[in-house]
Design brief:
Two copies of one chain form a homodimer.
Chain A lengths: L2 H33 L6 H20 L1 H12 L6 H17 L4 H24 L3 H19 L3 H8 L14 H10 L5 H23 L16 H15 L8 E3 L5 E5 L2 E6 L6 H19 L3 H5 L8 H15 L3 H14 L1 H4 L4 H8 L16 H17 L7 H13 L24 H20 L2 H6 L3 H13 L7 H9 L6 H14 L3
Parallel strand pairs in A: 1-3
Antiparallel strand pairs in A: 2-3
Chain lengths: 520, 520
């Protein structure tokens, strides 16, 4: 490395270190808002979060920083791998935001923070109209943000592809860019094709399941249990999967999530429903999976400021690996069945291990995404994705969203929300933007692919059944986690599996599992 | 106001507004550290807190800010009352820190944050030696901070008094200044005299109580209860005293506390012990009292940045008013007895209202300050105060503290801790400095004085008995809370009661109450 590169790299890292102070604080404020901040304190706290996020942005907008960052990006061949990845990440952020002033960024940030507050209140009151105005502002801010970008920059960043949606005049250009922000390199066309393929295989299968004669009893799943019992179950489950409580903590929130504060502080949340003990069980395993991904990443990532390269699809692949592939498997049920009976004796009385397994996997078209079964889950995503496209392309007005929501749920799942709370207000995501949801489905598809490699190398069922998550986690660490920050999703999944992305492993898995369960 | 004054005032307020963003965030990080932050994430979070506190300090150290602040301070006669108070507060802070560089402040801040982390770990391990090194640094930093001050400044700030300890060469000069930081205007001599007077009256009284034939049953107070039951009790009590959950939240922490985040966000904490249900009851009433003080302050204080003028003694007077004077009174027990029986049926079975009242007020020399009864409480404070004086004056080494602690507990209360955890490590306070404890006792003395005025104006027992805390809170708001930010403690207590500060109201109260209870 020449001394000029070294000097610029050192300067960049010093600024990143300072920016990380503000960013860490702002993450903590957001976490607090979602877990404990009182209703009337929300707005002020949102303002402070926006202020801190703006300090981060300002630091990276300093001409001196931009120069140094561009210098190391141009000389990235001289850098060691970790620093090179960091330079590339910085350049991507720079290219996306180069026309956004610090004032404009603060404005966006405040819109999102206000939208969160409004969403919380609207959800509580189950009244979409209380959120509509903020949602419109979020939509407009998202569109404005994308339109401020130079399309040429985006082409350079993502590689040339011949998709019509990459043309700025295309109706779906903005939506395509938003999707690419979350899942780098993917186009609207690829996603459309993927979901069409899912529908082709899943719609007929769902019909068969719904008309199957197989009866699965679920009555006991809705017996009343206390919060204290559910807390004991949470403690048990996080210890089973290997979540380290000296480097994390759990609490409760309306919408469960995982928050990375720092390398030794990765928080998760859950929620406790008195008549649905499985809900907190599977949300804690899901969030625990996200947390393991962060807890088990290579030490070097922190030191080189590259801990932010994972896409949401990668992240969801891991959380859903633990929640569904592992967590809803026969071997996992075998492992946790005795403890479940011990902690929830009233609910589990007279319930066999097989009945518990079946209940955990019952297919039931329903209204709430986060509570839905593994099979119908994909439809929840497709519905959101299709509505998002309409919102961003201008095909529907904000006021029409609840109506579209009901229509789509009726169409795909044959159910229809009676209230906004169990409909369009159930998810927090649109308070900060659009294009996030598809990553949940991509996650299912990624993990189905790497599960198929993993099973050739270790005896997954044996490890799970015996509670040996060290073996599982270690395989994940070496094969799935290690390079996630350094590769694009397409490179990453190919690196793990040797194959290009496909939804078929996931669809095959569903078909096999549910054909068995429903005796089709 | 001349236009130059206006210009300077506006500038000062704009800077204060920005500083408040950082300060709010740093308070939130500290709160998080004490409630949920995982063990291994503590140190990094402490660093960030120190960084944010340093940003506040830097903003106030800008020459432009100092000039503007000095200008409005010199022209304070032109300002309206609220702004004048703000100018005076700012000048006091300035005078105390004018020789402290931003680097030095960061160093102090980091020492305190590290000390908190070490205290937490040491307390957990019950091993004073793990905290000793940090404690020494805190002591040295406190001494250094005071020695950096100009004694002339301090004389100007506090008014001339002829106390020997105000002479910088006096052995107790540093300790005296530290005390004055918490309780403005009070000298070591006044405090010594006050505590000697307390000892004169309380030591013989304690002897009488201990040899009284009166038997108070307390067996039921240690029956096992669940956390869920205690949470229900917490919910009930905060609703009784009028703590507003839309402007606050409660959670748990090792050491219960109240944190003011913003005008609509005042948090309290408690802790749940399985075999001591009264502990969480009285800690929540205590912290709830602190919170009411903040929740019911005049709106104008926020707008004029004068919400920081309350001394700790004032604050403790309020929390202890609710916890002890009101909370441990016969009328309060009458109010809460039925609900206590309902929530803790196993513990309260066969316990009469009178027995419950007696148990809540039993005098039992013990080791833990926060769990101690109202009567022996003062001895816990005297012990800490006397040891603090020795620490700061250099009469004892850090390593000797646990020994001194045991000796003093033996001397005053006839009990001696077997472990550091139930001895010197029980309180967090020394991790940030010295001189805080005496304010707890001052608080008892203040509230005894204003209780004696209050009872002439409203029927306290009737209000409490009927759960009419609106009447109580309103009286407190008008008479106790309103001017607290604007006056020194001596001015404030005189403003409320028309009398100069005295410990006798408190001592009379104790004598009367406990002579009755123990049939002396």
């Amino acid at each position: 490395m020449n001394s000029e590169t070294k000097k610029n790299l050192d300067f960049v890292q010093a600024v990143l270190k300072e920016a990380e102070m503000y960013a860490h604080a702002s993450r903590l404020l957001t976490y607090d808002q979602e877990t404990i901040c009182p209703e009337k304190g929300m707005e002020e706290q949102g303002e402070i979060t926006a202020f801190l996020q703006n300090q981060v942005f300002k630091l990276q907008k300093q001409p001196k920083f931009e120069e140094a960052m561009l210098y190391i990006y141009e000389h990235r061949d001289e850098l060691e791998e970790f620093d090179r990845v960091c330079a590339e990440q910085l350049y991507r952020d720079y290219a996306k935001t180069r026309n956004i002033t610090t004032e404009k960024q603060l404005e966006f940030s405040r819109i999102m923070n206000k939208a969160f507050v409004d969403w919380s209140a609207a959800r509580k009151a189950s009244d979409f109209s209380m959120f509509a105005d903020s949602l419109k502002k979020v939509r407009d801010a998202n569109i404005e943000m994308i339109k401020l970008r130079d399309p040429k920059d985006m082409e350079d960043l993502n590689g040339k592809k011949n998709a019509p949606s990459l043309d700025p005049d295309n109706k779906y250009y903005v939506m395509g860019q938003l999707i690419g922000d979350y899942e780098r390199g993917i186009t609207i066309e690829e996603l459309d094709e993927c979901f069409e393929h899912c529908k082709e295989r899943l719609v007929p299968l769902l019909k068969k399941i719904m008309s199957s004669k197989k009866k699965i009893r679920t009555d006991f799943m809705h017996k009343e249990v206390t919060e204290e019992q559910q807390r004991r179950m949470t403690d048990y489950l996080i210890s089973v999967i290997g979540y380290d409580l000296t480097r994390g903590a759990y609490s409760t929130s309306e919408h469960p999530f995982t928050d990375w504060m720092g390398k030794n502080d990765i928080r998760i949340t859950t929620h406790y429903y008195p008549t649905d003990f499985a809900a907190s069980m599977y949300s804690i395993i899901h969030e625990g999976g996200h947390a393991l991904f962060e807890m088990l990443q290579p030490e070097e990532n922190y030191d080189h400021f590259i801990e932010g390269g994972k896409t949401l699809g990668m992240h969801e692949s891991v959380s859903r690996m633990y929640e569904n592939r592992l967590g809803r498997s026969k071997s996992f049920i075998k492992l946790i069945y005795p403890k479940t009976c011990e902690i929830f004796p009233e609910a589990m009385e007279g319930v066999s291990e097989e009945e518990f397994y079946e209940a955990i996997n019952v297919v039931e078209p329903s209204l709430i995404r986060t509570e839905s079964d593994e099979f119908t889950y994909t439809f929840h995503i497709i519905i959101r994705y299709e509505i998002e496209k309409e919102i961003i392309s201008g095909d529907i007005d904000i006021a029409d969203i609840p109506r579209r929501w009901r229509e789509k749920y009726e169409e795909y799942l044959g159910v229809s929300p009676k209230t906004d709370r169990e409909g369009v207000l159930q998810d927090v995501h649109w308070a900060s933007g659009f294009g996030y949801f598809p990553t949940y489905s991509m996650g299912n598809m990624y993990n189905a692919m790497y599960y198929n490699r993993m099973k050739n190398e270790i005896d997954i069922d044996k490890a799970v059944e015996s509670g040996d998550f060290a073996t599982i986690n270690n395989w994940m660490k070496e094969n799935v986690f290690k390079k996630a920050d350094r590769l694009s999703p397409a490179e990453w999944i190919k690196d793990i599996t040797g194959r290009d992305f496909t939804a078929d492993d996931f669809l095959d898995y569903l078909e096999e599992k549910y054909s068995g369960l429903y005796e089709l």
